[in-house]
Amino acid sequence: MDPFSKLPFLCVIGTLIASFCMPVLARWKREFCAPLATVVTGAVFSTTLVIGYHIRQGNVIHYAVSGWQPPWGIEIVVDSLSSMMLMLLSGLAFAILIYSFAAIKHELESMVTGWYYTAYMLCLAGMMGLVITNDIFNMYVFIEVTGLSACALVASKGTRLSTEAALKYLLLATIGSGFILFGIGFIYMITGNLNLTFIAQELALVKDSYPFLIWTALSFFVVGFGVKSALFPLHLWLPDAHSSAASPSSAVLSSLVVKVYIIAFLKILFIAFGLEIFHETFIRHLILVLAIIAMLAGSFFAFVQIETKRRLAYSTVAQIGYVFLGIGLGTPWGMAAGMLHIVVHAFMKTCLFLCTGAVYYQTGRKQVNQFSGLGYSMPITMGAFTVAAFSMVGIPLFGGFISKYGLALGSLEADLPLVIVVIILSGLLNATYYFPIIGQAYFSMDGHDDHDTAKVFKRDQVPLSMLVPIVLVALGIIYLGIFPGGTLDFINQTITRLL
After folding, report:
1. Strand 75-78 relative to strand 61-64, pairing
2. Confidence of residue 283 (pLDDT cuts 50, 70, 90)
3. Which pTM does this prediction carry?
4. Cis bond upstream, residue 396 (ω within 30)
5. Residue 465 CB: number of other CB atoms within 10 A?
6. How far apart are CA 347 and CA 390, in angstroms?
7. Rounded to whole angstroms, what are the CA distances from 197 to 74, 120, 264, 467?
8. Which residue stretches of 156-195 are H helix?
9. Measured between alpha carbons, how far apart are the two ends of the chain, in Å?
10. For the chain, N or C: smaller number of CB within 10 Å?
11. Mean per-residue pLDDT for 99-123?
12. Which long-range contacts (CB under 8 A, 24 or more apart) does 443-449 make?
């Protein structure tokens, strides 16, 4: 047996066991919850690096849980896409956990700490399970685990706004889950299988006999995963949920949770249905139109928001549009750029939410017009914020430029040159709501009596445990902008397999 085959399964099980230990630990030694969660996540991250090294050699891990071979049992398949997502999920979750040591004490009541880390670890386990399973019903179970724990992360803040946002998130996410479950039901009715590989084999034989049912199933999946991943106009839960949660929760939700649903959708779309059905049903055109609307409308809504976290949340709606644009283009370059944007945006949005949380920690400021002078009083935080903002706009040498350039090439490949105009316009809109914040931080000294004194650089007055993750994530954005080759290797392997 391949010695690496059990490692992905153990990552999920280890994280689940840690989440079950948290409530018990919280009653005995509440302060141990964060260190235990960090140690476990660090170990999982190290393991995913080993898996990633193994997969990069051209291997694919297949593991039948409990020895039950597919289609009877649950199968885990880790290819280059799953491996890349495992490293991304565990690595950023590890950084956010280190950041949460101080931030959670500042933003949450101490009595909910144990339950917070229970939800955090459950959410991480659900996300990892979602990207490695090859069983469509098992995928649905992990969707529910991820969604419910994400709602708990929002509600943990305990304010009226966060409770309302969590309830709205729960209601709309349940509707999305219902659509996905109906889609799974239709697929099972047509093929009699729940394993993605076996579904693909059966669909290839019977697709001409059930064209309407296949189209219906695909439509249900588009709506269900559209709600879950906040594709415009199905995004209504996202701005409230992401802006009212604690800063570490906002970072996890905006950078990771919405992305794993897109990965699940991609696996169903390209492994189970295949490229031929994707093109024949014209679902591609629907996704393309919704993606373009999301890129523009999300940016317009972000521009008019006065609260920083709410602006970042609407920005996520626009950035999800970029990812779906890559899927809708349906070309190798478009798909690769969409997948790369999943990775780059995860780094960018984590950095922006962590920086916003650091600003709130030091100054208590929450609005976009309250950043005056922060470039000098919080130079490390605002330096990282500037890096992430430049990348969001698509400035060269930052990760966002590479993915947007790839999307432009994908548009040419799909013979849709006008889409490049939309990409440029959306980038300019990004600049209109990020650059004023940066300008205030470095060039405005409103509220300072002595401007000369105010323009002296001082060290950020936030704990080192918050600054180190912020700096590491910002360096990651620069690395992806200058050396994207490693990430693109994983993505190219995936494109070769899917297309």
Report:
1. antiparallel
2. confident
3. 0.95
4. no
5. 16
6. 13
7. 12, 31, 14, 44
8. 160-191
9. 29
10. N
11. 90
12. 444/371, 444/372, 444/373, 445/372, 445/373, 446/372, 446/373, 447/372, 447/373, 448/372, 448/373
